[in-house]
Amino acid sequence: MTSTPKVSVIIPTFNRASLLVKAIESVKAQDYKNWECLVVDDCSTDGTWQMLQELAISDNRILIYKMQGQQQGAPACRNYGLKKCTGNLVIFLDSDDLLANFCISVRVKYFLENEASDFLVFPILIFNETTHDLNLLWNIATEESDLIRFLKTDAVWQTSSVIYKKNVLLQNEGFRENLKFWQDFDLHLRLLLNGANYKKFLNLQPDCYHRNHESRISARVNINNERGILFQKLEFYLWQMSFMKEHRVTLTDKEQLTFWSAFMYFASLCLSLLKSKKDYLQFVLRGRKYFPGIKLKYFITIIYHLVIYFEDNFNLRSKLGRLYYKAFKRQLADMDVFAGNLIAKVKLST
pLDDT value at position 166? Predict the structure, then answer.
C-alpha cells in the first residue's frame, strides 16, 4: 500500500438534496486529498440529480451515478458504488451524515500502521442538527466480545465509522440487497463470523457524525410491533443460522446461547404481541434444526413460553410461570439478552 492510498467514499442517496450537499461538502473539506466520492442516486425526484451534475463539474473527484428503473434501496446503491470505485480503501457515508475534516487522514494513518487488517473501526457521534448537540456516542467498547454483542443486536459500530479494504467487501459479497433494515448490522455480523481481521480505535476523537432524525425508519415506527418487520427479523436470524451452517462457523457455548436467546426473544413476540401460537411455533420449529446441541433447552423454553403467554387465568399463569422458571432457569433462553445493549446510550466525556 502506498503512503497516500486512494480512498473511495460511497454515498447512496434518495430525495435528500439539501442534506446530501452537506455530506458532500464534508468530504470536500478533508485535509487528505487522495479521495474520490461516488454518489449513487436511487431515482430521486427532488432535483438531486441536477444538483449532483453541477457538483461533479466543479470537482472531478466527485463521480455520480443514477440507478436505472425503480428505486432499489441503499444496499444496492452501495454495492453499485463498490463495483465502480477505484480506491483500495472504502468508506460508506449516508447522505444525511457527515465526516470530520480529519476523518480520512486519521483512518489512512492507522491503516498504514495496520496493513494486515481487513477493516478498522473508529468512534462516531450521534447528532440532531449540529454535530455536537447531543454529544452521544454510537457505542463504546466493553469486555464482552464484539461477536456476542452483534449477535444480540448491540452493534458496536455503524457503517460510516469503518474504513474497509475494498477486496474484503467484494469477497464477502457486499450488502444483502433484499434486506429492508439491519443491512450494515448484517454485513458486520458476516465479517465477524467469517473471521475478518480488524481493530477498533474507539478511544480516539469521533471522526464522523450520524444524524438522528424522524425520517429514519427506526425512528418512525416501533418495529417490534409491526407484524411484517417482526417476521423479517426472525427470517434474518434464520438466514444467519443457515449462513453459519453453510460456512461451517462454530460458535462457543456462550455465543450460541446469546444467538439462540435473541432468536427466541423475537419469536416470543409472536405470542406476547401478536397472540399467535401458530406463527410462534412456525418460527421456533424452523430454527430448531440449527441448535442440535440444545434440543432439551429448546423444548423446555417453548413450553415455558406457551405457559406464560397462553394460560387464561392470570393467577394460575403467574404461579405456573414462577414454578417453571425456578425449576428450569438454567435450561431457558435468556429473555433479558438485550438488557445490557449500549447503542446510543453513552455520552461523550467532555
Answer: 98
Q: What is the DSSP letter of 333?
A: -
Helix (H) or strand (E) holding 7: strand 7-13
Name the pLDDT band for 70 (thresholds 50, 70, 90): confident
The rounded distance, in Å, linking the Cα atoms of 145 and 8 is: 30
Q: Taking a C-beta distance cutoff of 8 angstroms, is the pair 126, 138 a contact?
A: yes
Going by the DSSP 8-state scheme, the letter that residue 183 receives in this structure is H
Q: Is 206 in contact with 137 (CB distance < 8 Å)?
A: yes
Q: Which three cell numbers stand for residue 201?
A: 480505535
The Cα–Cα gap between 129 and 280 comes to 41
Q: Is 34 helix (H, G, I), strand (E, B) or coil?
A: coil
Look-up: residue for cell 415506527? 221
- Cα 72–chain centre separation: 19
What is the C-alpha to C-alpha distance for residues 312 and 310, in angstroms, rounded to an integer? 6
% of the chain exceeding 70 in pLDDT: 90
Task: Encode pLDDT of 238-287 as tens digits.
Answer: 999 999 999 999 999 899 989 999 999 999 999 888 889 999 999 999 99
pTM (2 d.p.): 0.90
Per the CB < 8 A criterion, the answer to whether 253 and 260 are in contact is: no
Q: What are the tens digits of pLDDT across the range 163-207?
A: 999 999 999 999 999 998 899 999 999 999 999 999 999 999 999
Q: Rounded to an integer, what distance in angstroms lies between the CA atom of residue 233 and that of residue 200?
A: 27
Q: What are phi and psi of 157, to 5 degrees?
A: -140, 160
Q: What is the pLDDT of residue 327?
A: 64
| Cβ-based neighbours of 74, under 8 Å, separated by 6 or more | 12, 14, 42, 94, 175, 183
Q: CB 91: neighbour CB atoms within 10 A?
A: 25
Bridge partners (DSSP) listed for residue 8:
36, 90
* Residue of 46, 51, 55, 52 lying closest to 65 (CA atoms): 52
